[in-house]
Amino acid sequence: MGLPPPAPLLLGLLLLLGILRLLWGDLVFIPAFIRMTGPAVTASLVGGTEDVTVSLTLLQDKEGLLPVPACGVLTNETGDWSLTVTPTNALEVTVRLKRGRQRCSSNETESSSESPCMVQALLVSASRNSSCLAHLLIRVEIYANSSLAHNASENVTVIPNQVYQPLGPCPCNLTAGACDVRCCCDQECSSNLTELFREACFTGIFGGDVSPDSDHLCSVQESRGVPGWFPFLCVQSSPANSPFLGYFYHGSVSSQRRASFGVPLRADLRDLSDFGYKQGDPIMTVDKTYFTIPQVSLAGQCMQNAPVAFLHNFDVRCATNLEAYQEQDGGVIHMKIKNGAVGGVVTPRVTYEEAADPDAFITRTGTLLSNESASRNVNVEEHYIFRWNNNTISEINVKIIRAEINAHQKGIMTQRFTVKFLSYNSGDEKEFSGNPGYQLGKPVRALDINRMNNETTLHLWQSAGRGLCTSATFKPVLFGEDTLSGCLLEVGIHENCTRLRENAAELLDSLVRATHVAMRGNSDYNDPSDDWLEIIRADAADPGAAPPVSVRGLCADVPARLHIRILVSDAGAVEGMTQHEIVGVETRLSTVNWQFQCGLTCEDKADLFPVSASVQFIKIPAQLPRPLTRFQINFTEYDCNRNEVCWPQLLYPLTRYYQGEPYSQCVAKGLLLLSFFVLAAFLSNPWTRTCKA
């Protein structure tokens, strides 16, 4: 069923006139033609819309002729259709099908649900002073399976009891009164429509297989190939007893919730500090608020109001804009913190120090326009030390390092915040790296017997700014973490090669200012014989040895990389925790040939020479594995790793491979089982006949 014969010609003329009028700036509908399959369509009328009248006409051909549209009459309702005009930047014209009329009844379209039940042609005309200026042609094709052809039922849906019946026998049936594509269990899909997507039907629960036959049911024996012993072990159960009962939501009706983009208010804080702190509990103040210190989140952002957790140490750095920096009113000096006992309060003891080099913390982003004497103090470092006793806090010591800067200074300030929890009876603030073995992430303990203050550690570079070695700081080598770091050394084209080698070797040697490394995490610094290993320094080229030929801008055998290899192994366990120890440390220098990099011309300006250091932790077994015998190498029939059948593990619970129970218990249970077999053998029928004879 299609449009009358004159309709295609009218459509072409309307499209052509619409394009030409749009170019001329005249009144025009956008779009000029609409194919309508739903309850409403919308078009825009652009151009000079002053004093414009819009009318709607139902086109009905009589002997192949279309009626002449009456542009001078305002018609907002035409039978089943209504016309609405909304003034915006242009006129928005909406044609809507009245839902009061039921044009597509189920009785009329049961036999041919694939054919449209409503085919009409509508013409929307825009006129001024009874003169037609623009037309919009609408072709209407509405099908019986469309959702607008059925009124929504106001009855409450009866939800079955999911204990006995699945809630959705066809979960992919999402549209009421219409066929859902790829949903083969949808009863509203005719056989012709189902054939179009039968090969791509939804599978599983969503596709309607809500009561599949389980593999252990006896009823599957007839349809599937099963072994001979299956009838003795299968389960007799009704097919209605589906394992997917209750798989979907339990069936209660919930009201719709509107989405909110506002930040929810935080609920009342639960303050349990009066009964003592536990590890990880937030530290509370007397005002029932969290005691907060800036910390770094998992996303790398600095959170200014992060609560401090009991017995959780941290050392973080936060970048702060000096223009947005605001010092807290009163600070921590007037803070009163609950100590974990009923009514107990502890006040932090604060000491202030002045920063020796404020420029090490501040990166300037601009030049001061005025040299006013006004200044202000900023906190560049804050160190908190909590003394704890059982589940209470006995003392809090705070050291704040301040820097005095110009009040109008602009730039980025790097602040450092550290928190340490120490026992109340500890004599000093020194921390072990483990007890007794090393803990992952703790600094590697080192010792320099050639200095009075022999306590030290291995270091790596932590570059900042341009990455120059002159501005780089040190960070400790952490146990178990393979790391690569480096910095840049400024070198000129007239650089003396001997001096370059000496400078590079001195930079690399500054990372390992130690002679020994501790095997364990609690080795005593005052006793070099307490499991301290001497650092093995591999032979390297003499930095003072000059090459036979000296060329300007070219130096050979320049130390460029330091390799630190640390051998570790497992040294047993304490209370189930594996203890790690260091069994050897080696350092080795690598050299490169440096050449000044010239552009179009070799200008006398500094070049950048990269130097780097790497740390590698190599785990070795505590005991060397037993070597394979010649029989095990050549004869692989009994090798469990290269065969599907493992004969050595035939009596697996009685072998050394079984680690679930102590070996003595496995042997005892095996002997008990063997005694049962022997007793059954003696009491069997052949032995009874022998005894009677």
From TrEMBL:
Lineage: Eukaryota, Metazoa, Chordata, Craniata, Vertebrata
Domain Tectonic-1-3 N-terminal: 145-256
Keyword annotations from UniProtKB, A to Z: Cilium biogenesis/degradation, Glycoprotein, Signal
GO biological process, one term: smoothened signaling pathway
Subunit structure of this chain's protein: Part of the tectonic-like complex (also named B9 complex).
Stated family: Belongs to the tectonic family.
Domain Tectonic-1-3: 274-423, 434-620
InterPro entries in the record: TCTN1-3, TCTN1-3_dom, TCTN1-3_N
Protein name in the entry: Tectonic-2 isoform X2
Keyword tRNA-binding: no
Gene name tied to this protein: LOC111156539
A Gene Ontology term for the protein's cellular component: MKS complex
A UniProt-annotated Pfam family: DUF1619_N
